[in-house]
Every structure is written in C-alpha cells, then in structure tokens.
C-alpha cells in the first residue's frame, strides 16, 4: 500500500520499508556496510574546505562514509592521553584510504596531497564530523 508519509532516504519511487537498496548505491541493504551512505556532494573535514567530490568507492560506501568510520574508530580509542599515537594511526589509515581512492581514479594526486595535509593539521582525535 502506498504511503506518502513513509521515509524515502534516496528519494526514488520506493519508500524505505519496500526499498532493498535505500541509498541507491547498487548494493542491497542486507549486504551493505553503509545502507544509508552519506551522499552529500562534497566532503570536507576539520578546518579544511577541500571541495573534493564525494564518490562511491568500494562495497557500497562513499568516501565520506569511509572517512567518518575512520574518525569514529580513532575517536573511540582516545583516552585523553594517547593523542599523538592515535593521530599517527589516523594518518597511516588515511594514507591507505587515499591510496585506494587514487588507485581507483576517484581523486587526483593533488587532491590526495590536500587530504593528507588536512589530516595532518586536524584535531583527530577528537573531531566531530557529520
């Protein structure tokens, strides 16, 4: 039964209750690590205004999904005294992510460099990102 008030995350013809791919990334929600991918057009973090296009990467995730997951993982380990260690971990994992994006031709060499510079100057841990 059609329900005009039903949530419809991706704005397609199917409400979320009937939609087996709520974010329209081609990966069924039952197999999607990010069934409600962050699909905003560009991504930025910290004080950086990167304006790099947020694209779908691998396994039904967007670049923003992957950055958010990394930041969340690092922040969960923060105990108030291990900032340097975790910031190094963040930078290492960020380098792996951007290497994969570059390899997949989602970003340019200069965009990878800009992301790295942003990460280096960020307050991660502990930075809230949406």
UniProtKB/TrEMBL annotation:
One Pfam family of this chain: TSP_3
InterPro entries: Thrombospondin_3-like_rpt (IPR003367), TSP_type-3_rpt (IPR028974)
Bias kind Acidic residues: ranges: 10-24
GO biological process: one example: cell adhesion
Alphabetical list of Gene3D superfamilies matching this protein: TSP type-3 repeat (4.10.1080.10)
One example GO MF annotation: calcium ion binding
Region (Disordered): 1-35
Keyword annotations of the record: Signal
Protein name in UniProt: Thrombospondin type 3 repeat-containing protein
